[in-house]
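ugh ok fine here u go
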Amino acid sequence: MKGRKRILMLLSNPFRPDPRVHREAKTLISAGHAVTVLAWDRAGQSKRKERVDGIGVSRVGPRSGYDNILSMLWTLPRFYWNALVHSRRLRQKPDVVHCHDFDTLPLGILIGRLKGCKVVYDSHESYPDMIADSAPAPVVSLVAMKERKLVRMTDAVVCTTNAIKTKFRGMGADDVVVVMNCQEPVQPVSQTTIDDLRDKLAIGNKKMVLYIGTMEKIRGLEEIVEAFSRHSGDFKLILGGYGPIEKILKRKSRGASNIKFIGPVRPDLVPIYTQASDIMFLLSDPANMQTQYCVANKVFEAMSAGKPIIVSKDTLHQKLVESTGSGCAIQYFDEAQFFDCLGRLKNEPEYYQKLSEAGRQATNKQYNWQVMGKRLADLYDRL
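structure:
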């Protein structure tokens, strides 16, 4: 049903801001809706209340880490309770509760029943597969079972790929909409800004190879760092982000002149780093089922900026970059193939330009937020 809706988004991170949630909220505000994000401030370091680009943001505790799934599960009920208390104090009843990822879905369904409003489940990834490497098998099985049950209690499902859509349709979900993590065509920054950043990172005349994202084992990052430590060569690795193996990567990067570990990067600075780079990579272990269901933000960021990206074979990433012609795929993790790819991108300007332009064209024609945002707005018109 068309008309202005009050939307309560639930989020298990502090919204600093979370890029996908930020884009979706702004899209829905542009469509005439009112959006409030109720976020879990696990670090206890963010403002309790603020407005971000017209989005009302409220944060509740308790404190909880990111590097231990069991610790998160232990504190999750307290987050649910705090969020539930906060939702009961809202001056106006929401029309829709929008649950970002499975860890907010039980809470959202409870609020939906108490408030008599509709529930949207926004699955950013295949959640059971995402936690499979960090949680005990019984926990993974329990999450998968609960997801199958709870998804049938929602009014609509939003997901990031057709593969996940097929999974949810098989669970009995009727209205499933694919909203990929696409980017807007990149807004160019000045050459001076790019030069200043490259000087700060001491790139010199080398090619800048960039990774900014989640630091977890299935990304092959430890192998990448070890490989760069053995190659002085013509490339410099810039490694940013945070996650379970952040400390390991920081330690292994020490002393390597061609590796710069920069840690967490503010979301508004990521496009600048992307444009300053020459080549990006995103290697994922195809043995992890997550790689068969999901496409990471990094691939779309690279395409939007016209940066060739190296991905793993036998993953959805391979299918996307090969169908668009925006990157190349290697075996996970094959050091020789990785450096062969880097060498070809460095030594063959025409090949580099072909991949670069293909990424931009794919973004402009199909893989952009204007297309994806319309899908989301149309879904809310139907609710």
